[in-house]
Write a structure and sequence with these properties.
single chain, alpha/beta, TIM Barrel, eight-stranded parallel beta sheet, 8 helices, 8 strands, globular, binds D-xylitol-5-phosphate, binds zinc ion
Length: about 220
């Protein structure tokens, strides 16, 4: 069942010289999760941060840290991100030969397990894994950069996954990531998403606008 809409600001659009303060500001502004994009310059054509930055951010917020791993191979680094204080670890199936094993490893580390689907990866790939995940992330851009445009094909994929999740009867979050703004957020929600990642749209206008932006993304006018 679709849950109340939650907003996960991506700190990819934050001031990287002041990440602790940014995370505190996001919590104060009503964010539900903190989305952290981990990129390795190999699986995706950009390089961001590693587990030590996640560890440094952990004391700055009580919100769940939603760690989106765009790294390959992913399995060897899962324990480090778990130990650093991640709450959710999301992997791409293309990041290793045995997705089920990666998900089992995440669960054995005591964390919530997510699977991320690139725009070219079909929803059906999730079907045999649905019993092993807490979250499905639909990429609505090709991963690697913030500020890209929403790919409309994501809507159909979200709708297909909403049906699949509801038929399973399991409580699985359906997250959408990339190009989410005040126009695309309601479309993604109408299709069945209940967890919205937003980088550019959250940070637009500076810290004085975070609360208003988050409320508006959630569908609350302000
Ligand atoms: C892209 C990342 C996204 C990104 C979203 O690879 O996974 O989380 O930060 O940024 P916006 O919201 O600006 O598209
Ligand atoms: Zn992301």
């Amino acid at each position: 069942m679709q849950q109340p809409i939650r907003i996960a600001p991506s700190i990819l659009a934050a001031d990287f010289a002041a990440l602790g303060g940014e995370v505190r500001a996001l919590e104060a502004a009503g964010a539900d999760f903190i989305h952290i994009d981990i990129m390795d310059g190999h699986f995706v054509p950009n390089l961001t941060i590693g587990p030590e930055v996640v560890r440094a951010l952990r004391p700055h917020t009580k919100l769940p840290l939603d760690v989106h791993l765009m790294i390959a191979p992913v399995d060897p680094l899962l324990p480090a991100f778990a130990d650093a204080g991640a709450d959710i670890l999301t992997v791409h199936p293309e990041a290793g030969p045995h997705t089920h094993r990666s998900l089992q490893l995440i669960k054995s580390l005591g964390k919530e397990a997510g699977i991320a689907l690139n725009p070219g990866t079909p929803a059906s790939l999730v079907e045999p894994l649905l019993g092993d995940v807490d979250l499905v992330l639909v990429m609505s851009v090709n991963p690697g950069f913030g500020g890209q445009s929403f790919i409309p094909g994501a809507i159909q994929k979200i709708a297909a996954l909403r049906k699949m999740i509801d038929a399973s009867g399991r409580a699985v979050d359906l997250e959408v990531d990339g190009g989410i703004n005040f126009e695309t957020a309601p479309q993604a929600v109408a299709a069945g998403a209940d967890l919205l990642v937003a980088g550019t749209a959250t940070f637009k206008g500076g810290a004085g606008h975070y609360a208003g932006n988050i409320a508006r993304l959630r569908g609350v006018s302000s």
